[in-house]
Amino acid sequence: MEAAFGPGSPIFDQTTERLGRIFSQAGQTPPVAARFREWQRRRDNIHGQKSPRAPSTQELFIRQTYLALLARLTARRFVAPRRPISGAEEILEVINVDYFSRRGIGNFGEGD
Description:
66% of the residues lie in helices and 0% in strands. It has 112 residues and is mainly α. The protein has one domain (2-101). 7% of the residues are buried.
């Protein structure tokens, strides 16, 4: 799984680069900026000061966003393994966790 989706894999590189572009464009909008500040507070409460060798705060946020998306898409595959994703609307429902909530799977991805 790491070879297919981890750092250095084409999907990781392409997706995090695209997420970075999206964040650069939308990072100052109130909902995104609020979510980023909330994430920073939680990270600081858990980890304290970052190490000098750690990725930048923005890069880490993008990487964790990638992991959250990957986890949701993987979970969707386990919930309905024989049914392909039907389209963009279902992908959006998986991303915003409505897909899981409607199936009684609570506390999955809220706050990510």
